[in-house]
Automatic annotation (TrEMBL):
Pfam families: Usp
InterPro entries per the UniProt record, alphabetical: Rossmann-like_a/b/a_fold, Universal_stress_UspA, UspA
Source organism: Halosimplex carlsbadense 2-9-1
SUPFAM superfamilies: Adenine nucleotide alpha hydrolases-like (SSF52402)
Family membership: Belongs to the universal stress protein A family.
PANTHER family per the UniProt record, alphabetical: STRESS RESPONSE PROTEIN NHAX, UNIVERSAL STRESS PROTEIN UP12
Listed name of the protein: Universal stress protein
Domain UspA span(s) in chain numbering: 2-132, 150-273
Amino acid sequence: MRAIYATDLSAASEAAIENETCLECLERIGVETIHLVTVVPSNVHPGMPGMDLEGRRERALDRYRGVMEAAGFGVETHVVRGTPYRRINGIAETVRADLTIVGSRGQSPLANRVIGSTARNLARTTVVPLLVNRVEREDERPEVLREHLFQRVLYATDFSENAERAFDAFSYLRHATQEATLVHVESPKDQSETDPEERLAELAETLDGWDIETAIEVRQGDPAEEVLDVEADVVPTTTLVGSRGQSRIRRLMLGSVSEDLVARARGNVYLVPPPRTA
């Protein structure tokens, strides 16, 4: 597997990259090659007075490369200029990446109402599964909030086609997963003749066969709020969810469950997008 590791060379990115347990989890799920990507904003120039931007960038990337190579990964670095989420998606397509990883401090309640962070823009537009690796928000030297990335997974499903696609990610995540909680939130519009607990139980049987200790929950109410409540109760290391994708106009608006989880979840979020259309 090939992974894009997007970094803005901040303390948050460094914390995610240099955490040994996170790197071990990536190795367990089959990642062999990591493409370190940093995007230079178009309004930043190497000759700006008083700043050794190029030198700082090279030293940081060399340090990150050394950490990852010592952990057994093949590493390639990419320094590009432009809009971060667009360039990250472009490189992911070019190198045929299997997932993208980005560190995030999360957002304040007010900032959640504003579009702008790379993590949120990637959540709307990612072309491959996206891991948002959460780090502490306030500390100058932050640490990742939930180590052992996929050890305890909360899987949220509405039984849609893309939710099933997200569940399929367990085929490789299982090598790092010990526990899973499967949750479905019912709405008044649900018309299925199948009991949601039965459908979750069928999924749980698959995970049980992989020696993953599994629990199921059916909730009623607002999907994002209920999933976040379950996350607070079971404290997973990562929440796994599918995204139905957005139209070009819809990407300018807030509100989808997956975007809410990326913005508001306390731990990591693994977002699986729909397959790319030709």
